[in-house]
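Researcher: Go.
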Amino acid sequence: MRLSPAEKLARDLDWNLLRVFLALAEAGSVTRAGERLGLKQPSVSQALKRLEERTGHRLIDRSAGSFTLTPEGMALLAEAQAVRAAILRGAEAMAEASGAVAGEVTLALASHVVSPLLDAALRRFHAAHPKATLSIDILPSREALTRLAEGQASLAICLMTDPRSDLQTEVFYREFFGLFCGPPHPLYARSGLTLADLAGHTAVSFQTDRMGDALAAVTELRQRAGLSGPVGQSTHLEEVRRMILAGLGIGPLPLHVVEEDLRAGRLWRLPPQDDPPAIDVYLARNPRARRNRAEAAFLAILDTLLAETPPEQRIYGP
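Model: Structure:
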């Protein structure tokens, strides 16, 4: 029987070539893809060349200063991701057939998610289901929600400006932000400061620190203090903290996250000390998602902890 080109490709294609292609598409460079796969750059480039020869299409444009998927590459990426998902589901199905709770739970988290409730869920889950795996991706809140909606994450814990109708959301915890500076800053360790003393100093902050976005309450505080800038921004709490410690400017951080920094003298809290802005951190899940047993088990543990911990005990701050 004569095979069609598509059938011939399905018969002859080496999955390892697709695996390399996925790493390239997701890493955005040959170097980073090689690091992910544990391969040297020439091996990665050769695998891409073989895949393009097998498919008969150029998949990635690697001209000078450019690394972008071609239209054919974009089409193949969606199918390759589906193949990877099918292989993972197959492995999970075999493990579950043996009675074990297996599979991967992928958490999409904003960078400043610090909660003893989440830590307890991770501990309980691993103790109960040691064969299951956990993956935690730190992402901007909007991207975390997009990943969840597209089925690439088991749940998301992040900031939200408006509830999304396609997702099930609830307040996970409430945190409070203060303004801080590091040892190089001229206001460090000065007592008796008022809000007026902050006026004119430069600020560093999060990228969502702007009116109408998730940290609008922090934006209002920064504007009330008369801070200029910001001269530095990041989506990651650790990078905002790094800029504050380096003396680039005054920046906002969650009070409960920086308690140890304050005790150790790495950070100095600035006015206002009273009435700090409150920010709600949300737990989001996709009601249409087809969950594996590991995801279902993790969510069950999390729901139990939420039921055991009333909202007033999930307020971290003053």
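Model: The mean pLDDT is 88.
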